[in-house]
Amino acid sequence: MQHSTQTDPVPESPALESATRKAFRRLVPLVMIMFVANYIDRVNIGFAKDALEADSGIGAGAYGLGAGLFFITYAIFEVPSNILLERYGAKFWLTRIMISWGLVSAAMMFAHNEWIFYGLRLALGAAEAGFFAGVIFFFTQWFPNRTRGRANAALYSASTIAAVIAGPLSGALLGMHDVLGLRGWQWMFLVEGLAAVLIGVLVWFRLESQPRDAAWLTEQEKDALTAKLRAEEAERLATKQEKAPSRWSMLRDPQMLLFCFVYFAAQLAQYSVTFWLPSFVRDIGGLSEFMIGVISVVPFAVAFFAILAAGRISDATGLRRTVLGSGFVLAAVGLGVAAVTSPVLAVVMLVVATAGFKVAASSFYVIPQQYLVGALAAPGLALINSIGNLGGFVAPTMMGQVQEQTGSVSGGLLVVAACCVVALAGCALLRYVSPSRAATPETAPSTTAG
After folding, report:
1. What span, in angstroms and rounded, lies between the C-alpha atoms of 166 and 40?
2. How many CA atoms, within 13 angstroms, populate the side-chain half-sphere of residue 180?
3. CA atoms within 13 Å, Cβ hemisphere of 344
4. Least confident of 31-45, 280-294, 382-396
5. Is 248 exposed, middle or buried, given 0-12, 13-18 or 19+ CB atoms closer than 10 A?
6. Angle at 233 between CA 159 and CA 367, to 5 degrees
7. What is the DSSP letter of 450?
8. Cα–Cα distance between 288 and 168 in angstroms, integer?
9. pLDDT tens-digit profile of 418-432?
10. DSSP codes, 423-448
11. Predicted pLDDT at 130
12. Which run of H or of E encompasses 198?
């Protein structure tokens, strides 16, 4: 495939600017709320790890496997889910996803042994499959290329907001031992799962699948935004080969394989830290569950500002790969040092690592969003997300086994740091199509097999 790029000096029309501002104000905060609930329900088992071991006999190995099993069904159902999103629209399908995953997450309160735990984690992955890639595709239906980096950054910043909320909230809920006969960890899963169901109902009334459906845009704004998005799509299609490959043959494209690996590395780093962060903090000693939750917030609070800064720099400069690579540098250094130092310094270095892998993950999708066009956009993004998210299976499974065998997760952190270094090298090989098609130092024309 031949990919050439250039900068677009033509100022946007007032109607387009107005439509984009309105869409950002209305849709991005709602999607961020959705992602907050999504992230909390995905990772809250990290706070329940010790309680599950005490009450349900789920040890480190079983915990790591169960945490990772989520990503197996997530990967299996990701592409079909996004094909259905294309067919039925984002409003219906994202509402369905939120309500179903909320119910399954609430059902985690019944995880009284490891087999129920495994089954519910598999069910949660199937229910949630398609959410993130669906939102990324949804953004391509609403935001032109030059503003999509900020939209993606806002989405990823929601995961840091979720972590800030999840720590104290989960810590407080874990303290509700024997209230109405339920253990604290049962209250945590019930309350946080039902919150997702309620947000799903809100989504049905507030989300619109495409600009033409939005009563809050004027006709001029609808026309301007729709025309801009169609023009960008046509321009990208013009740079592709005449006959598009089938959805599954996309994996024969080396760029798609590279996309999958780079995102896999980001997810590997993320879930190596996320599922084990409360345990790292607990190793400091002498802390209550609530204080563990509060301290666990710090890495994600720092990452929040790093993500927003990275999104602005990426959009302002167009240096997508440079911003992405800088995230992997921070992640590799933070994880590597955390593996070989004291508990207190390890937590400090995990702040650095968290900022790094969050910047990498938030900066990544703007590249394949421009690379994939037409009928390949939704399934292509889903394919990258599903394969990349297998890092979420490998990370906790590996970390659990390493901890069981050695009593420490240091060896696992070093392996993940090495993967981040390899991903950093891969960033230099990524290719994308920018909004216009003149070569710049960062986006020089290149040819890749397709």
Report:
1. 6
2. 5
3. 3
4. 280-294
5. exposed
6. 40
7. -
8. 11
9. 999 999 999 988 876
10. HHHHHTT-----SB----SSS--EE-
11. 86
12. helix 184-206
Calpha distance 73→299 (Å, rounded): 29
Q: What angle (nearest 5°) sits at the alpha carbon of residue 122, between those of residues 121 and 123?
A: 90
Interatomic CA distance for residues 199 and 229, integer angstroms:
29
pLDDT tens-digit map of 238-255: 655 444 455 567 777 888
Whole-angstrom distance, CA of residue 95 vs CA of residue 106: 17
Return d(Cα 210, Cα 222) in angstroms, integer: 9
Q: In angstroms, rounded to a whole number, what is the distance separating the alpha carbons of residues 373 and 433?
A: 10
Size of the chain, expressed as the number of residues it contains: 450
Number of helical (H) and strand (E) elements in the chain, helices listed first: 19, 2
Instruction: Please give the biggest Cα pair distance in the chain.
Output: 66
pTM: 0.68
Question: What is the Cα–Cα distance from 63 to 68, expressed in whole angstroms?
Answer: 9
Q: Mind listing the pLDDT tens digit for each residue in 360-394?
A: 988 888 888 778 766 677 678 778 887 888 888 88
Half-sphere exposure of residue 33: CA atoms within 13 angstroms, side-chain side: 17
pLDDT at 9 (0 to 100)? 43
Nearest Cα neighbor of 149 from 448, 435, 400 is 435
Distance CA 12, CA 19 (A): 11
- Within 8 A by CB and 6+ apart from 133, the residues are 78, 81, 82, 378, 381, 382, 384, 385, 386
Domains located in the chain, CATH noted: 2-9+27-443 (1.20.1250.20)
Which residue has 């992997």 as its token pair?
328
For 209, residues 6+ apart whose C-beta sits below 8 A from its C-beta are 89, 90, 91, 92, 138, 141
Dihedral sign for Cα atoms in the order 261, 266, 267, 269: positive
| DSSP three-state, residue 179 | strand
> Is there a contact between 350 and 337 (Cβ–Cβ < 8 Å)?
no
Helices (H), 59-144: 60-88, 90-107, 114-128, 131-140
Q: Supply the mean pLDDT for the chain.
A: 82
